[in-house]
Amino acid sequence: MIVTLKDGKSLDCDDNPFASGADGAAHWSKDGTSLVKFYHNPESWRSASLEAILVRFIAIKSKEKKEEEYWQKILCWPAGIVTSPRLGVVIPRAPKGLKKLACFITPKWLNKHPEDVGNWSARLYIALQMARSIKRLQGKGLCHSDLSDNNVLANSSDGRTYVIDMDGLVVPGLQIARPVVDGTFGYIAPELVSRKISDPSVQTDLHALAVLIYQILFLRHPLLGKKVHDRDPEKDDTLRLGERALFIEHPTDASNRPERLDWSYKLCGSGVGALFEKAFIHGLHQPIQRPLAFAWERELVSLTDVLVTCLNPKCTLKSFPLPEIQTVTHARLKCPWCQQKFGGFSLAILHWQKPVAGQAGVFRPDGTRKVAWPKGQLYEWHTSLGAIPTPTMDAKVLAVFDNLPQKPGPIFLLNHALPYLEAADPGVSWKRVPVNQAVELKNGRKLRFGLPGQTRDAVVEVIQLL
Ligand SMILES: [Zn+2]
Asked: Which of 9, 77, 335, 421 has its Cβ near the most Cβ atoms within 10 Å?
């Protein structure tokens, strides 16, 4: 059938829908680039709401082309309004190779499709992009309202992420973009489940985001443990996800802890760990305390910098975050997923330092690290003050870690394109490391990436892993 769009264009799409849901039926476009969703019974405000999402609140638009391309890749934004034969919306078709997030977090599915386990570094990237997407929506004053494992498509091997179902976006407080759903089972915030509030909000989205991040990283739900609240399964669900919701890893109340808990959220270290505590301990029933999307983004970015690769080639998840080791001399470590010993070598870690305001030449650790894993790379945002990677930031590789020139041996930092790189041992003056030259990462050695006070410094720590 030929459908007419509000802007006067037309589109040829299949006569029969390939899917039908509660509020509409979806038809593929003949050219294969999009789908058209027709609403079964469009509400009186639906047309104005779609118009607002497409024009006033369009989160994929940016002055910078690079940024616009980035958001188009991760937010499935409606592309047009269909006016004839009846009200509908044109939605871009998801890129090939993406599946519903449910495939990557459901043990039953993963047992049958072990390839969907993917790897942990891609999972971390999915978590990061989900946080970025929600930050972007909230920056425009929008709430997704149905964020769930059905409405995020991803690839657990390469980390691609695509948030869908944007035609249901809600503008809290605005009469034209109203919530029509509470959300999906398992993702609805406790205050909505227990009917303390009636409408999804930015804060209920933040609950769903925390649940999804926990699930993609740990392959289990943070609230569905062993505790039974009522014999009636329906009442039980309302209680365990609503007024009596309890984190399965609660530090003082173990009543909802599953029989097997092979790994803890604590393996993510103190930064991401504190956010899980805010989301599922302090903020579970106090929405105002829930971590904001930008906090997730910042901490998940830091976590990508401490990933190491398991030594077991058959390890299911393949990489894990290096624990925050307190001892400076040596440590015994294991892969949290397969228990393979992680040791028999030394590892260099850069501890980032920020200049102290008003005290020239004084630097303090800012709590973030970068593991000098062979082939690991430094980008502009590593050395910049307070920066995190953004879609528009220069992604040029500035320096690479490598155990050149002799292998295996000490780790070096090879200056690819850093205009300014200096190194110094304690008590010794700074020495320039020009482009195409390398500096050995020795314990206690300092690295400087720009004029003092304009960039972060790093102090190298070398640990012996037994
Ligand atoms: Zn392993």
From this structure: 421
How many Å apart are CA 384 and CA 242, to the nearest integer? 43
pLDDT, mean over the chain: 92
Q: Which of 92, 118, 137 is the last residue of a domain?
A: 92
CA of 250 to the centre of ligand 1 (A): 26
Q: What percent of the chain has pLDDT over 90?
A: 74
Question: Is residue 136 scored above 70 in pLDDT?
Answer: yes
Distance 339 CA to ligand 1 centre (A): 6
Structural domain boundaries, residue 215:
99-302
Q: How far apart are CA 182 and CA 146, in angstroms?
A: 7
CA of 320 to the centre of ligand 1 (A): 8
The pLDDT assigned to 214 comes to 98
Sign for the CA dihedral angle at 203, 205, 206, 208 comes to positive
Say if residue 150 is in the same domain as residue 259: yes
Residue 314 Cα to ligand 1 middle (Å): 8
Q: Looking at the predicted structure, is the pLDDT value of residue 328 above 60?
A: no
137 with 259, same domain: the answer is yes
Distance 89 CA to ligand 1 centre (A): 45
Number of domains in the chain: 3
Retrieve residue 162's tokens.
């695509």
The CA distance from 287 to 290, in Å, is: 5
The amino acid that residue 308 corresponds to is V
Pair (180, 315) in one structural domain: no
The rounded Å distance from CA 263 to ligand 1 centre is 12
* Higher-scoring residue by pLDDT: 146, 328: 146
Indicate if the pLDDT at residue 404 is higher than 70: no
Residue 274 and residue 389 in one domain: no
The residue among 92, 127, 153 that closes a domain is 92
Which H, E and C letters describe 113-179, residue by residue?
Answer: CHHHHCCHHHHHHHHHHHHHHHHHHHHCCCECCCCCCCCEEECCCCCCEEECCHHHCECCCCCCCCC
Q: Are residues 59 and 117 in the same domain?
A: no
pTM for this model (two decimals): 0.94
User: Residue 452's pLDDT band (boundaries 50, 70, 90)?
Assistant: confident
Residue 204 tokens read as 């209920």
Q: Give the Å distance between the CA of 338 and the centre of ligand 1.
A: 4
Residue with tokens 């490391």: 433
